[in-house]
Specification:
3-stranded antiparallel beta sheet
């Protein structure tokens, strides 16, 4: 998935009522282009680089756009003529133009330090808030598991195949995997034991003797015990 496809996949998380209110504010002459900030932070992450979060966010916001089909849904909320065409064209042309900072102290927020701090015009930031927050939640969900798996096994004998269909989930999983040291990202192979976790399964691969008595068996048992919804079994 390239960056433009990522931006398209995240469109459903853009809030329709927010876009409608922005169009109304623009029509009324309100100042909605003033500078704004958006803080991303989570206790599970020590840095904006963890899980490739800042890279995913930058990849999305720099290719952000509102597809025509999505804009048609916004226009459906408004009676004909209530918003003029120039305002709709303004909304369609919104792009992110701002800065991204990582691991920076902030004031006046619920956290003292932002792992990712976005700055840009208020109108665009309002539309970006839900999609980038969703990216944060996804990274928080899978990053600790990828990190722990890599620390236990390294890249040898570890094969990953997402168990949730959909290009967005696969892309996020792949980027997080690469961020912890799995340079090849998600890959598939001959699976011997699997542990279901999050929205993909993790598999350790080895000989039957290794899986029964060796370190790989210990890893598989440890992972299974650590996942309330996990299960062991032959692939």
């Amino acid at each position: 998935m390239d960056a433009a496809e990522l931006a398209l996949e995240l469109t459903p998380w853009v809030d329709l009522p927010t876009a409608f209110e922005l169009a109304r504010a623009k029509q009324a002459g309100d100042d909605i282009e003033r500078p704004a900030e958006l803080v991303l932070a989570a206790p599970e992450l020590s840095s904006g680089k963890d899980g490739g979060l800042v890279d995913l966010v930058e990849e999305y916001v720099t290719h952000f756009r509102l597809p025509d089909s999505w804009l048609a849904s916004v226009r459906g909320l408004v009676r004909d003529g209530a918003i003029d065409e120039s305002t709709w064209e303004w909304l369609a042309g919104l792009r992110w133009k701002g800065t991204i900072e990582t691991d920076i102290d902030v004031e006046g927020y619920w956290v003292p330090r932002a792992q990712v701090l976005l700055k840009g015009p208020q109108a665009v930031m309002a539309l970006l808030e839900r999609p980038v927050t969703m990216l944060l939640h996804c990274v928080v969900l899978v990053y600790p598991q990828w990190r722990d798996m890599y620390e236990l096994l390294g890249s040898e004998g570890l094969y990953i195949k997402p168990s949730l269909d959909g290009p967005l989930a696969v892309h996020i999983d792949d980027r997080v995997a690469k961020s912890v040291g799995l340079d090849e990202g998600i890959r598939t192979g001959r699976l011997s034991t699997r542990v279901v976790a999050g929205f993909r399964y993790q598999a350790v691969s080895g000989s039957a003797e290794e899986l029964r008595t060796g370190s790989l068996a210990k890893v598989a048992r440890t992972l299974a015990m650590g996942q309330h919804k996990g299960r062991d079994g032959p692939s």
